[in-house]
Structures are given as structure tokens and as C-alpha cells.
């Protein structure tokens, strides 16, 4: 089994549509989560707060620059995720196709790298020796 993250991405327009039909969408999302649990693939799911409440820490220059939301240059924002433990990428895609959402939204499917795929000894972070990872 492998873990896959189904990342919900939306635009200003799709997010507005989502909020307009929130009650119905919430009910169908709870049903979707029940289906994930019954199938034994559910690991976690979370929605993110409004982007206007967040900040971006930009490391483009010599020192980090913090910018408050909203982010006018961003066309799509992450709105939340589902984390599944499934047998294949195709199974993750099939679950992604069933996510209740609105027209204009997108679901990005990404495999979560396993611990054995992150060679900490060669990363040069020093974190592997002090237990921080």
C-alpha cells in the first residue's frame, strides 16, 4: 500500500461556488469520507482556512519576506486535502474522481514518499542524528 494525497485546488470563482452550496457539499463530503473509511483507505482529511488569513514566507532574497494574504498573483489556492492509503496511483485517481466538488475545482493526486525513500544521511541536514525527523 502507498499513501497518496488528494490536494483540493480552487480558484476565486470555484471557491465562491463552493461557499454558495456549502451545506449540500458538506453533506456529500461526509458521505464520501464514510465511503473511504468503509473501504479501509482513509488516513486523514482537512480543509484549510481562507487564504486571506494566511501568510507567505518568501525565500527569494537574502532574508525571508512575509506577505499577508490574499495573494493576487496566485491563480489557484490549495483548499484542503484527503490522505489515502491505497494499492496504486490508479486507485487514488479513482477516489479523486469521486470527491464532491464544484465546477472549476481541481484535485491534484500526489504520492507521499515513504521513509525509506528519504536518505537522511545524504541530505546534510543534521536532523537524522538528533531525532528531529
Secondary-structure content class = alpha+beta
Average pLDDT works out at 85
Strand order of the largest sheet: 2-5-1-6
Number of helices: 4
Fraction of helical residues: 25-40%
What is the percentage of strand-forming residues?
Answer: 25-35%
Low-confidence sequence ranges: 128-133
**Largest β-sheet summary:** 4 strands, antiparallel
**What are the secondary-structure elements, in order, as H or E?**
EHHEEEEHEH
Distance between the termini: 22 Å
Rough outline: flat
Rg result: 18 Å
Strand segment count: 6
Describe the structure.
- The chain has 133 residues and is of the alpha+beta class.
- The chain has four helices and six strands, in the order E-H-H-E-E-E-E-H-E-H.
- The two termini are 22 Å apart.
- 11% of the residues are buried.
Keywords:
single chain; 133 residues; alpha+beta; four-stranded antiparallel β-sheet; two-stranded antiparallel ribbon; 29% helix
